[in-house]
Each structure stands twice: as C-alpha cells, then as structure tokens.
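Q: Hi! New to this. If I give you a protein sequence and the SMILES for zinc ion, can you show me the bound structure?
A: Yes, paste them in.
Q: Okay, here:
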Amino acid sequence: MSWSNRHVRGIVLTLVFSTMAVMQYAHSQRVRLGDTTRLLVVPVGDVDRRLVVAVAQEVARAYGMLPQIATTSTALPPGGLHPVRGQYLASTLRACLRPDDRSSEVIVLGITEADIYAPGLNFVFGEADLPGNTAVLSLAHLRPTTPGGHISYSHLAERAAKVAVHEVGHLLGLEHCRDERCVMQFANSASALDATSCELCPACQRELR
Ligand SMILES: [Zn+2]
Ligand SMILES: [Zn+2]
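A: Thanks. Here is the predicted structure of the protein with zinc ion bound:
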C-alpha cells in the first residue's frame, strides 16, 4: 500500500545499498514486538469514538498487544495543511503523536478524518514512520468519493482496521507481501483493500518472531 513514503524510501535505499543491507536496516530499526508492547491509539481531530475503539481492538488482536485509547483528541496541526491541496502532510500528523513515554515498547497510531498526502502521491490511506514508532491512518479515502456514495459503518471499520494493521506491521519490520489475502499486500485503492483480509499470512507471522 503506497500509503507510506516508507516504500519510496525503500526504493531509494535499494539504489544505494544491497538488498541484504536494506533488510538488515529495516530489521534493526523496527519496534520489537514483545509481551509488554503497548498500542496507544489517538484520534487526531474529530473522529467517531466507536470507530477508534474498533480499530484499536483489531490491531491489538492482530499483534497481541495491549491496547489503550487516548481520552482526548489531538488537534490537527495548522501548519500541516497545504493551502492549495486542502490536504494535510501525513508526516505533520505523525509529529503530533510523539508520546511522553519514549519507550521503544510503545506504538502510537493516529486516526483522522482529514485527507492526508505524502510527497509525490495524491493521497495516502496511511503512513508509518521508519525508523520510529508512529503511524497514522486517514478515513477520508476509505469512504466513497463519488457524490451520494454510501458505505456501512462495519465496512468502513473493516477498511480502517486493514490500513491500521498494515501500517503497524511496517513499524514492526514487515515489508509488502505478495500473498493476495495478506494484510501486508500493497493496495492503492479501496477496492484493492477490500480484496485483502485483515490477517497476516503465515510467512508474515513468522517474520514477527
Ligand atoms: Zn505499505
Ligand atoms: Zn504476508
């Protein structure tokens, strides 16, 4: 999912280093998944609380993490709004998510209704930091973009959970996967997202260990 400029960085790195060097870099910088790894989910701007809880539960289930939800929303960063595009630069939202607890065992996931983008891309569903422990997902393009389009709550929650599990997977060192049902498969449209599951394939699960 090119919801992440991490993919672009990966391509650039590949031009400079060998594939092996890139893989070692990714694994050495990832957050380590352990029994005490915590997930903090933070609404950025006004977000349906029920949806935030549903996403937190799915990510926690996928990785066996302890979920926690921020009691208050974080404000959208005024400086992150592009005056012409009307979108927020995704990295500026992630910058708002730095936890007080800098422990490497904390993953912070922001959820926003704002439309977000990364340099060179029209929009992103989400973005993960590398190296780092923050990721963000946007609901803006998970909803139908055609006038009068409708999506059920459960369908929207399912799409949001897939993006969240995917981005947190990147934080944990997972790369894009070729298994068509794996949540780590690259998807750049809502329909492609619908074709995947919310689950990690066996190979990606082994990567986490
Ligand atoms: Zn991705
Ligand atoms: Zn996989």
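A: Residues 2-28 have pLDDT under 50 and may be disordered. Let me know if you'd like me to explain how to read the tokens.
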